[in-house]
Amino acid sequence: MSPSAEVADRSLSRRIAALALPALVVLAAEPLYVLVDTAVVGHLGRVPLAAVAVGGTVMSLAVWFGTLMAYGTTGRAARRFGAGDRGAAVAEGVQASWLALGTGVLLVVLAQLFAGPLTRALASDPQAADAAAGWLRIAVLGAPGLLLAAAGNGWMRGVQDTRRPLYYVLGANVLSAVLCPVLVYPLGWGLTGSAVANVVAQTLSGVLFLWAVVRERTPLRPVPSVIGNQLVLGRDLLIRGAAFQACWLSATAVAARFGVAAVGAHQIALQLWFFAALALDAVAIAAQSLVGAALGAGDEPAAREVARRVTIVGGLAGLAFAVLAAAGADVIPGVFTGDRSVHDQAAVVWPWFVGMLPFAGVVYALDGVMIGAGDVGYLRTMTLVGALGGFLPLIWLAYAFDWGLPGVWAGLAVFTLVRLVALLIRWRGSRWAVLGVTR
């Protein structure tokens, strides 16, 4: 490799790291705050803890919408930034902010109307359901801020500004983590204090991102045609996300039919899988920004080099997780439970879990490449093919023929393999590398 090529190689690696590492902190901030909130409320008793669990499940829908909004905005803004038009990139953030605000207000209204029926459907205990409804009616007031922050994260990643999102999200969540125990205990607000702390964090974060977009001095009026294009992209991401949710819920439902120990082991492995996915998503976010910018600049070789590099990084990150998980096979389940029967079932799941991680690293990286390229329709279709043609039939066959957890995780493995093959085929072709600024 020539000296100039080595310099370019190191420069790209630094750019990937500069985007991925702050994104990882931002991605981890909300789940870490949820852990703090859960720990604080848990000392109030079983009913408040159950209320936060049920209410938090409903609020996770807003988080899901926010993730989709951020991903969709990043690719569109990155293309315009790569084409040298920062103003147009920020304008994508303006329109995404309008969409976020409208969606957030709608969620607030729906929660006020349907919090009671929703929580009663999720909680069998009437006292817990009522407490969850009260918590949700307050906590949902933070939904507009949460979605504004997601839209802001999206356009800022698109223009490769990673520092401000890190400060905004981390600052708001640290403030709320300090505020939560103070409101719950010394001030005596109890469960209400938890909900208010959530609203404070999400609203503050949303206001900071809104302030950032206003400071760009880009026209702030809504443009329905741009919002419509964002909705089309969001629709495909939403369908793809719904396929994932159907898979995870079905896997848990089938695992539960093999006994308490089996579902406990499955839950441990699945939550660790989600944790690994969170870290690997940071690489995908770097791919979204860099691929979108390269294609917007009309530089297909640069886009392909980014795709190649993030795929390698994703695979190595997945391999690192696999090595750590394999080394901790006898220790990690004991962190979650002392039940020996759960440990025995975890030992059955572990080879599947470990073996899938390197492939998952490649899949998540290539997901980011295709989202950055705007090739979301293909992602949607291949996810549905993997879910409906491989994963779901396999795990229900596992239930019918009593294959146990190996059958469930074989379904997860097939789902990952189908997506891997589909993404590699697409990556090797040229249809994803559409140059210039798309609609």
TrEMBL record:
Main location: membrane
Pfam family, one: MatE
Transmembrane annotation, as ranges: 16-36, 48-71, 96-115, 135-155, 167-189, 195-214, 237-260, 272-298, 310-329, 349-366, 378-401, 407-425
Membrane topology: Multi-pass membrane protein
Family (UniProt): Belongs to the multi antimicrobial extrusion (MATE) (TC 2.A.66.1) family.
NCBIfam families for the chain: matE
UniProt-recorded name of the protein: Putative MATE family efflux protein
Source organism superkingdom: Bacteria
Gene Ontology molecular function, alphabetical: antiporter activity; xenobiotic transmembrane transporter activity
Localisation per UniProt entry: Cell membrane
PANTHER family: PROTEIN DETOXIFICATION 44, CHLOROPLASTIC, PROTEIN DETOXIFICATION 44, CHLOROPLASTIC-RELATED
Organism ancestry: Bacteria, Bacillati, Actinomycetota, Actinomycetes, Micromonosporales
InterPro entries with a match to the protein in the record: DinF-like, MATE_fam, MdtK-like
Organism, scientific name: Pseudosporangium ferrugineum
CDD domains for this protein: MATE_DinF_like
GO CC aspect terms: plasma membrane
